[in-house]
Amino acid sequence: MTDEKTGPAGGRGVVEDLVASGGLDGLFERIDSGEVGLTGADGLLPALLKEALERGLQAELTEHLGYDKGEQAPVARGNARNGTTVKTISSEVGSFEIEVPRDRAGSFTPRLVRKGQRRMDGLDSMIISLYAGGMTVREIRHHLESTLGVELSVGTISRITDAVAGACQVFCVSGLFRGGG
């Protein structure tokens, strides 16, 4: 199977190649020994997600400005890179900080991590799933903190679950959703 964007078998093919070559053996040894964790503040997965998001944000800014980082800004455009802003993101693999690039004109609007966004969409889905499974808001908060190292307030979790509960009421009242069999 070939995908135009990711090549043969996508990301899975890359992992299979690394496994076959032994390229992941050292990493797995470090994970097995406890030297490297997968999730949480210092975990491998948040670090990889951070790198991927920052690269994507830089690519978005490059497209917006019309020149690559390190190149001279075209004088005619009148806009240039202007450093970064640190933002903490909570995700299903843990919390981490990213550096969001800025432009001098303030006209750059990132799409990968939207302005004001503090949580990755998968974390909201996880919270909703835990709530639907019968966990209280405080139990969800404790679970996220102890397993993923993600610290969200009870109020934030309540707002997420309330939004879903409100949507369910609209669907049920309007007849768009019929429970049962």
From TrEMBL:
Required for the transposition of the insertion element. Coiled coil: none annotated. One of its GO terms (biological process) is DNA transposition. Belongs to the transposase mutator family. It comes from the Bacteria. Keywords: DNA recombination, DNA-binding, Transposable element, Transposition. This is Mutator family transposase. Signal peptide: none annotated. GO terms for molecular function: DNA binding; transposase activity.
